[in-house]
Amino acid sequence: MTAIAFLLLFQNICGPVIISEVMVNPQGSDSPNEFVEIVNVGDVTINLAGWTLADLASVDALVGSNLLLDPGQRAIILEADYLMASGVYQGLIPPETLVLSVADNSIGNDLGNAGDRLRLINPEGVVVDSVEWGDGIEEGYSLERVLLDLCLPSGNWRLSNIAGGTPGTVNSVDGKAVDLALLGSDWRWEQNGSNYQIDITIANLGLIDAAGDLFIHGTRIATVGNLAPGDTVTVALLARAKGSYRGIDATLVTINAANDYIAGNDSLLVMTAITISPGDAVINEIMYTPRLGEPEWVEIANTTADTINLENWLLADLTGDAAIIPMFELPPNGLIVLSAQPPLSNISTVTLPDFPRLNNDGDEVILADWDDWLVDSVNYATLAPTAIGQSRECGGLALLSNDRASWIPPFAEERHTAGRANGTPVDQSEFGVTLMPNSLDLDDPRAQLAVT
Asked: What does pLDDT average to over the chain?
């Protein structure tokens, strides 16, 4: 229900008779369906003869065949022209409820939907209870008092949970006074990939002191002691990423308090950036000249012993065309192929509908993390031309991505190694050619060509 701000004024006594419910904006026509409910919270019977209700414009006397309100009893105050036998509240008002009305056909000058103030006044002219509201009262729902024995200037009133309100019966929000809420969080940068600290701010938005337990991913890790209404406290939590982890780690923090009536503010998903270091994730293989009907693709390798979350990372080219990588956890030392469509049915692929178009005659593949920090890039414009259907793969994960010597055609029969380890790297410094004899004569049966 919509939250409403209330201001309780002129509350000199707050009892023994209090206002417990007000139907300000009934469904359909306001007249004759507005009502006010009052309760005797004292321990003696109260004679309501001479009592009045007043809004900002006029004052109305309470009338009825019986004006005695017993301890704990509720009274419903209706407009004089409301018909009990056929009105909208027929069958809802219990027989033990005292039924009264104001002396004319409206409560006050009609209760204002956009704001008004209602006062209950005893025969001595003392305002024993009062409630004021602003706009935003949802049609068909009443204003209900949460705690009948609590006199507060604000916060003790809410919209009913039941359309039509609860005339003459226990309020639908009765006793719902506990509300511990998680308001926000902060976390420390430059984490170590396993544990990190989250600072959680907890507020008591309820009406009474409350305590609760804090959980991370369903495991209780701290207790919040009694917190007074309106107070806040910040608790430092040591969270552990789901195993060793890098990238964005989503930590679900929840608070559990007995009888908490608003579940929507009891949880917080904290997105924490675990540090990515240069070389943690690298571009490992590129297919930019695929066969007809096959897609271009890029393979990413995780060089660490930690899981890396690629969520919201970017894959881009020199033109600025970029694709956002969805949630994907790249396992330790794992590989993943990024493409507009899977290159082969048995290759693990994250499909990117906006996969950038890679130029055959030269382009740059750029990998950036969720915060647009450059993770790796490869400019293949200086590489030797590649045959159709043949990829270029990195000769070793420790090699520099933008060193042309790092990129070689794969040795595999398929002309690529998508989704599996690249071919055995070759140390070019150990290449050698031996001619025997020194001058090669192919007609000489003794001629040998040895490549090592």
From this structure: 84
